[in-house]
Design brief:
With about 525 residues, the protein is of the alpha/beta class. Helix content is about 50%, strand content about 20%. The protein contains 20 helices and 16 strands. The protein has a six-stranded mixed β-sheet, with helices on both faces. Strands 2-3-1-4 form a four-stranded antiparallel β-sheet, sandwiched between helices. Strands 6-5-7-8 form a four-stranded parallel β-sheet. A hairpin with a 2-residue loop joins strand 12 and strand 13. Helix 4 packs antiparallel against helix 5 and helix 7 runs antiparallel to helix 8. The longest helix has 22 residues. It is globular, with a radius of gyration of 24 Å. About 5% of the residues have low confidence.
Length: about 525
Amino acid sequence: MLRYATDWLGVYREQVNALNVYPVPDGDTGTNMHLTMQSVRRELDTCDESSMPGVARAISYGALLGARGNSGVILSQLLKGFAEAIKDLKVVDAATLGRAFQAAQKTGYGAVMKPVEGTILTVARGVAEGAAQGEHIEDVLENALFKGQELLNQTPEMLPALKQAGVIDSGGQGYLYIVQGMLAQLRGEALPPAPEITSYAQEQFENEEFGFCTEFLMSEATRPIEEIRELVTPFGDSLLVVGAEGYVKGHIHTNEPDQLLATVGRYGKMLKTKVEDMSEQHTEILGMAGATARAEEEIAPTGLVAVASGYGLVKLFRGFGARIVSGGQTANPSVQDIVDAVRSVSAEKVIILPNNKNVLMAAEKAMELMEGRAVVIPTRTLGQGIGAALNFNPDVPASELVDGMTEASRAVTTFEVTRASRTTNITVKDGRTLDIKEGDVIGLMDDELVQSGGTPEDSVMEMLNRHYQGQEIITVFGGPQHTQEDLDALAGRIGKEFSMAEVETHPGGPDLYDYLVTVE
């Protein structure tokens, strides 16, 4: 049921996106809920399906790790409550399914510091009330949908923003689509066609007070969740900090994403971060709203899709005109993710920058599926992607851009500093043997291991001393665990050693990396 509900929600993803107005007009509610469900499905695909505890853990664990955005984090808590209610059962019947939906609603409300009616929580309450009645599972789901829809229809009266836009709550609608998908699977119904989107609720609104939607996923936390929640509360609003299975997931809207992530990063191992500039996203959504009205002659000759992670790098690629596919090292996007991004770009032909050797094959497969509408420039690092993107021009045909962008990508050297995931010893290209312990700092040049040991800053300096060849610009992106002061100090060391180069620094480097340095 949950697998099929994921596909069912996927059909309506853009419709849910188009409804979104609360708590800010960021427009990705449907996408975030769908990504959360996809993560649940991945865990279900690998769990022991004959074990109810195994299935319950897959639901809860998958939802937390895949939770995206405010709506996705709340959905993860609804699913956590649902999973807790079934984990010790032998059989899920009508009565226990009803109790699972009730537990979902209770956990969802409990996760939000200041629950607001007129949101997904209200609809979850309606679903729980409806699910309390019915002799058969089909009856329970029908009653849940009926009562959930009843409360969903009332949400514009609960939230002025919804009434102003003339829409129902997007997260609540997404939750009902999940329940609807469960019922459709039970009945053997085929997936419906995706509805046509003709308007976007975001057209009614200006930008909000806090400009950056900031998320983090952390393991090995050294402070309780309650303390971490208090720690980040002063940074903004729309706050959610939740946890399970030893992980802490956070979501907040703030004007200080760098400082927030650096503060939180002191109390655990930061696994993933995401920062979205909501004003840029708002502008992009409004552009999508007018896409159906564009005349054919207005379509640009060339579009750009780039795979990237780390909000500083994402912002940079967006500045070059790229549509972003989230992912990279340890989080490779699927072929479908890349195909969807290409289809969303209004251009005659789209250039794809995979920016990671492990993404290259998926990008090439996506190119094949697009049947001539896309071309891949085989960038194997984010630095190569930056070099290529610098030479992108949407007004020039792709056939005239590819050679120049490819050549530019090869002119950039990329240094990455991260931590070893296991103990080993490796002989590198220059004949040195590196003895590496798990957790040691390691340095890579163009994705090849070349250095180990010392501090992250020492790693950067050692690699530059060995491999710098007189290039003009050295750009340093700091990972989520580093402050602007760390970046400034490192830039000072680089400037002193390599006075002939211009040194630039940016926060928001890739997740799991201390520093990413490009030399061009």
